[in-house]
C-alpha cells in the first residue's frame, strides 16, 4: 500500500549557499575598546560591550521605564546589523569593491538624515528595548500573564505578620513598582527600515548547515557574545539575557536567549534565532519559548546530587526540548500563574531585504514601530 502523502507540505529549508557563491563577499574586521565591527558585503555588523550602568544612569533608566532594573544591567550594550541595498547591488555585480565604498557602521549618534531609510534595514538587539518589554503596572499578572511565586510564597502568606529575614520590619504586601521580577521579556529584537518580519509556514532554519564544522567553508570570521542583563532574582535563581553572533563566509547566525531559573519552581527559555545567507534576499527569524517545572528538569539529571547542569542554559534547553508534557499546565499546578506566560510557542518569520530601486516612502511605517521605545531611551545612553 502506498504511503499516505502528508496533509501539509514540509517546511522549505532556508537558502543553502553552495561551496562557492556567485561572488565572494569581501570583509573587514575592526576591533575597538568597546565596539567590534565587521563589514561584509552589504552588511555592517557591530557589537558594543560596556560596563554595567552607574548609579546616575540607573536612576534615569528606572524613571524612564518605570521598572527596577536587574542587578547587572548592561544598558549601553547592543548588537546592531545594518544592511545597505545599494551596497548589495554593487557587490552582486562584482566580487570586489573598493574599501571606500564599504558600508560604514551606524553610530547611535548618527543623524537619521545621513541614512537612506528606503534602502537600509537595521536589525538590533538592545538592552533597554528588551527591558521595555518586561511587564509592569498594577495587575500585570492577570493582564499579561506569566506571574511567578517563589517556592516559599505559600508559607509567607500564611504568616500573620510577615517579617524580613534580616530585621523585624514587616515586608510590604505589594512591591513599590509592580513588575515581572523574573524579567521575562518577550523581546525578539528590533527592526528599522522599509522591511519587516512576516510569518512564514514554509521556511525553516538550515540546521545541517549551521551544525557543520568545515574548517574552511564554516570558518568563523567574526564572533561575539553580548550580555544584556543578569539578575539573581533575590537569590532564588537567575535571569540572563544575551545575544551571540557568528559570521561565516556564507552566512551569519544570531542566537539571543533569555534563560530564567526560579529554584524549586520553574525554568523558562525564550530563544530568538536569526539567519541570513549572503547572496539571498531573505532574513529568517525563529522565535521559540518554553517553560517547564523545576522538578521536571531536575529529574533528568544524570547524578541527582550534582545540580550544576541546572545552571547550564544549553543543557536545560536540550532537556526542555525533550519534555513533551504541557508546560502551562505544570506551572498552573504550582499556583504560579493565573494566566500563561505569553512567550510560549514557536513561530518562523521572514524579512525580505529591499532592492536598490525600492520606491521612496515605503520605510516610514516600519521604522516607526520601534521609534516610540527609542525616543526616551536615547536620552540616558552613554555617549
Question: What report would you give on this structure?
Answer:
The structure is a single chain. Helices cover 19% and strands 28% of the residues. It is an alpha+beta fold and 383 residues long. The chain has one domain. Strand 11 and strand 12 form a beta hairpin. The longest helix is centred in the C-terminal third of the chain and has 14 residues, at 364-377. The N and C termini lie far apart (70 Å).
Helix and strand composition category? alpha+beta
Question: What's the domain count?
Answer: 1
Series of H and E elements: EEEEHEEHEHHHEEEHEEEEEHHHEH
Output the radius of gyration: 23 Å
Family: Belongs to the TIP41 family.
Region (Disordered): 90-113
Protein name: Type 2A phosphatase activator TIP41
Biased composition (Low complexity): 90-101
Task: Compile the SSE list and pairings.
Layout: E1 12-13, E2 27-31, E3 35-40, E4 43-48, H1 55-65, E5 72-73, E6 78-84, H2 85-92, E7 120-126, H3 127-131, H4 140-143, H5 153-157, E8 190-192, E9 198-199, E10 203-204, H6 207-211, E11 222-231, E12 237-247, E13 251-262, E14 266-277, E15 282-293, H7 294-298, H8 313-322, H9 327-333, E16 345-352, H10 364-377
Parallel strand pairs: 1-10
Antiparallel strand pairs: 2-3, 3-4, 4-6, 5-11, 6-7, 7-8, 9-16, 11-12, 12-13, 13-14, 14-15, 15-16
Amino acid at each position: 500500500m502506498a504511503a499516505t502523502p502528508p496533509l501539509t507540505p514540509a517546511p522549505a529549508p532556508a537558502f543553502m549557499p553552495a561551496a562557492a557563491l556567485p561572488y565572494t563577499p569581501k570583509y573587514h574586521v575592526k576591533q575597538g575598546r568597546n565596539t567590534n565591527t565587521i563589514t561584509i558585503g552589504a552588511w555592517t555588523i557591530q557589537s558594543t560591550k560596556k560596563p554595567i550602568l552607574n548609579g546616575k544612569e540607573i536612576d534615569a533608566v528606572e524613571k524612564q521605564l518605570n521598572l527596577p532594573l536587574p542587578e547587572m544591567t548592561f544598558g549601553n550594550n547592543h548588537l546592531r546589523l545594518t544592511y545597505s541595498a545599494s551596497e548589495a547591488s554593487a557587490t552582486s555585480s562584482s566580487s570586489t569593491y573598493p574599501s571606500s565604498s564599504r558600508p560604514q557602521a551606524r553610530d547611535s549618534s548618527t543623524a537619521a538624515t545621513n541614512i537612506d531609510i528606503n534602502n537600509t534595514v537595521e536589525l538590533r538587539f538592545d538592552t533597554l528595548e528588551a527591558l521595555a518589554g518586561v511587564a509592569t503596572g498594577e495587575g500585570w499578572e492577570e493582564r499579561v500573564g506569566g506571574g511567578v511565586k517563589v517556592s516559599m510564597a505559600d508559607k509567607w502568606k500564611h504568616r500573620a505578620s510577615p517579617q524580613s529575614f534580616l530585621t523585624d520590619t514587616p515586608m510590604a504586601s505589594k512591591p513599590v513598582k509592580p513588575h515581572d521580577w523574573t524579567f521575562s521579556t518577550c523581546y525578539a529584537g528590533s527592526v528599522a527600515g522599509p522591511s519587516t518580519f512576516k510569518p512564514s509556514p514554509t521556511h525553516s532554519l538550515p540546521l545541517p548547515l549551521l551544525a557543520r564544522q568545515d574548517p574552511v567553508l564554516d570558518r568563523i570570521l567574526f564572533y561575539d557574545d553580548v550580555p544584556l542583563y543578569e539578575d539573581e532574582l533575590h537569590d532564588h535563581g537567575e535571569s540572563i539575557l544575551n545575544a551571540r553572533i557568528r559570521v561565516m563566509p556564507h552566512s551569519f547566525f544570531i542566537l539571543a536567549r533569555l534563560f530564567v531559573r526560579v529554584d524549586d519552581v520553574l525554568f523558562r527559555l525564550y530563544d530568538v534565532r536569526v539567519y541570513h545567507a549572503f547572496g539571498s534576499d531573505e532574513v529568517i527569524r525563529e522565535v521559540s519559548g518554553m517553560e517547564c517545572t523545576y522538578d521536571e528538569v531536575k529529574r533528568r539529571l544524570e547524578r541527582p546530587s550534582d545540580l550544576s547542569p541546572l545552571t547550564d542554559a544549553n543543557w536545560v534547553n536540550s532537556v526542555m526540548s525533550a519534555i513533551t508534557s504541557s508546560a502551562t499546565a505544570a506551572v498552573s499546578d504550582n499556583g504560579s500563574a493565573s494566566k500563561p506566560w505569553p512567550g510560549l510557542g514557536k513561530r518562523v518569520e521572514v524579512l525580505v531585504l529591499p532592492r536598490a530601486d525600492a520606491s521612496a516612502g515605503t520605510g516610514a511605517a516600519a521604522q516607526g514601530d520601534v521609534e516610540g521605545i527609542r525616543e526616551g531611551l536615547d536620552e540616558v545612553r552613554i555617549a
